[in-house]
Amino acid sequence: RIVVLDFGSQYAQLIARRVRDQNVYCQILRHDITAERLAELAPKGIILSGGPSSVYAEGAPKCDPDLFKLGIPVLGICYGMQLTCEALGGKVDNTPSREYGPAKCKVARTDGRPDELFANLPDELNVWMSHGDQVSSISDTFDTLASTPTCPYAAIRHRTLPVFGIQFHPEVTHTPLGGMLLENFVVGVCKCEPTWKLGDFADAVIESVRKQVGDRRVICGLSGGVDSSVVAALLYKAIGPQLSCILVDNGLLRKNEQKLVIDEFTNHFKADLRVVEAEDRFLASLAGVTEPQEKRRRIGSDFIDCFKAEAINIKDAHFLAQGTLYPDVIESGADPDGPAATIKLHHNVGGLPAELGFELIEPLRDLFKDEVRRLGLELGLPESLVWRHPFPGPGLAVRCLGEVTRDKLVVLREADAIVIEEIENAGLYRETSQSFVVLLPVQSVGVMGDARTYENAVAIRSVDTNDFMTADWSRLPYDLLARMSSRIINEVKGVNRVCYDISSKPPATIEWE
Ligand code: XMP
User: Fold this and answer.
1) How many whole angstroms separate alpha carbon 141 and alpha carbon 143?
2) Whose alpha carbon is nearest atom 3 of ligand 1?
3) Nearest Cα residue to atom 20 of ligand 1
4) Catalytic positions (predicted)?
5) How far, in Å, CA of 409 to CA of 404, rounded?
6) Quick one: which atom of ligand 1 is closest to the CA of 434?
7) N-to-C CA span, the chain
8) How far apart (Å, rounded) are the C-alpha atoms in residues 257 and 64?
9) CATH number given to 198-386
10) Any idea where the domains of the chain sit in the sequence?
């Protein structure tokens, strides 16, 4: 495997993705991991990521300089290159010479050949620069491998150690041949075999789950979302009848959702499925509550109680399986070697606390979301499930602004179903990342036939995003919006006005509450 030391996580995750695209396993670690610990982990290569700091700034994140002595190939990218130079005798110019945007990079040749880092690449590359400082002198410990008109040391190599640095960003799509450069490092320099496959990954996980579980039982919460479905599919392959799934119907699901989840489940698994009908309980505890965080708290605690009550009935249940993904592990700092950077704000209601007394199994904790989707397809789950838009744990409660009531949920569910159906009919379901309806706590005047109406307003929300941390509103065609609006007003009793939400995130969030 390859490890990436994280100096500013936005870049580190992208680099890890690109390395995995070469079929080589890649893990992100804390930037201050010791050389000793790295030696124990024995990766085949180390990549130092970019980052927003200046190497001379107070408190700038540094790496253990001894890692350069391990004999493991190192590639420093941008800030990572500046650290490398600082550690091994180069000089970084800290009078900011900011450069942001595309550049043409000329590859140096020795005896008519480029360095192995640039093998099979053209003499001139389009690259993406994004830096404040840059390396101003490399002493005689490094050779120059490539340069741009404004950046004499765009790529360098240490004369005696397997240590490289590049000032530009090979991991972004604006460096079109960046993937080949990373491949040259990972496969050419580090000698990694490009053999890591999702299928192999699944086999290894299945094997280790079998060993861990023995003849005991595993419980898995099902939500109808892709993560919990893939977890269930993996576990079912591993331990078949020793798996019990629990679906808590909190009455806050979308139209026909319970039936859909049950149908999909029974089509694919012969495992035990228990459905907890808990609509009354959830609606009772939401009665009179209007504050969004309070809604979340009540739903979360009811969910745990319902789950616990059902789990107690399952004999020999020892493990609880959860769909924790790699970004959750990184962001929550749960991995002792992982960067502790930002803390995820969303507490997924599916995330059950450890005090429940089960041992946790998290088979997806090494994967990114799109890898989970690919794995789902490999495990035979249908496209319709694998590409489903995400749905928040607190469900329709955070889309029914103000107090949640049974009547309001009926209106919301119907309007929401129309929007999804129209998006699907327009062939835009995969293109949009999340589309739904919000029921607003306002009434407005309208006219239907000859009569005045005074009814609810709803908002359609549809966003495009890669990571759900930032998002833009979908530019849906006007005709489509017109169809949605007219269908909602005609078919959903109690709605006489439809708005389209044109706010991006930030500053708005995707959900309204
Ligand atoms: P926001 O509204 O913060 O949402 O832009 C980002 C993504 O997270 C989902 N979301 C939640 N998921 N529990 C969840 O499991 C929650 O409380 C929650 N709140 C928002 C939201 O649907 C979007 O995909």
Assistant:
1) 7
2) 509
3) 392
4) 78 (nucleophile), 169, 171
5) 7
6) 24
7) 42
8) 52
9) 3.40.50.620
10) 2-189, 198-386, 399-500
User: Which CATH code of 3.40.50.2300, 3.40.640.10, 3.30.300.10, 3.10.100.10 fits the domain covering 399-500?
Assistant: 3.30.300.10
Q: Is the CB of 143 under 6 A from ligand 1?
A: no
Summary mean pLDDT of the chain = 90
CB atoms within 10 A of CB 335: 16
Tell me, in angstroms, the distance from the centre of ligand 1 to residue 334's CA. 20
Q: Is the peptide bond before 506 cis (omega within 30 degrees of 0)?
A: yes
What is the arithmetic mean of pLDDT over 461-487? 93
CATH number 3.40.830.10 is the correct assignment for the domain at 2-189: no
The ligand 1 atom nearest the CA atom of 509? 5
Topology agreement, domain 2-189 and domain 399-500? no
Exposure class string for 16-32: b at 16+ Cβ within 10 A, else e: bebbbebbbbbbbbbbe
SS3 144: strand
Report yes or no for ipTM above 0.90. Answer: yes
Q: What is the average per-residue pLDDT within 427-456?
A: 95
Averaged pLDDT for residues 226-231: 92
Residue 136 tokens read as: 């101003």
DSSP string, 407-470: HHHHHHHHHHHHHHHHHHHTT-TTTSSEEEEEEEEEEEEEEETTEEEEEEEEEEEEEE-SSSSS
Atom number, ligand 1, closest to the C-alpha of residue 433: 24
Residue 448 has pLDDT above 50, yes or no: yes
Pairing mode, strands 217-221 and 163-166? unpaired
The two counts, helices (H) then strands (E), for the chain are 14, 20
Q: Which residues contact 410 (CB under 8 A, 6 or more apart)?
A: none
Q: Which residues are annotated as a binding site for ATP?
A: 223-229
Q: Is the whole model's pTM more than 0.90, yes or no?
A: no
Active-site positions?
78, 169, 171
Q: CA angle 221-226-229, nearest 5°? A: 45
Partnered with residue 26 across adjacent β-strands are: 2
Q: Residue 3 in 3-state DSSP?
A: strand
Cβ distance 179 to 17 under 8 Å?
no
Tracing tokens 């930030």 back to the chain, one arrives at: 506
Distance CA 460, CA 473 (A): 10
DSSP state of 369: H
Q: List the one residue out of 156, 185, 158 whose CA is nearest residue 170.
A: 185
Instruction: Judge contact between 78 and 178, C-beta under 8 A.
Output: no
| 330 alpha-carbon distance from chain centroid | 10
Q: Among residues 180, 167, 104, which one has the least CA distance to residue 132?
A: 167
* Lowest mean per-residue pLDDT among 85-94, 158-167, 430-439: 85-94
- Is the shortest distance between the CB of 475 and ligand 1 below 6 Å? no
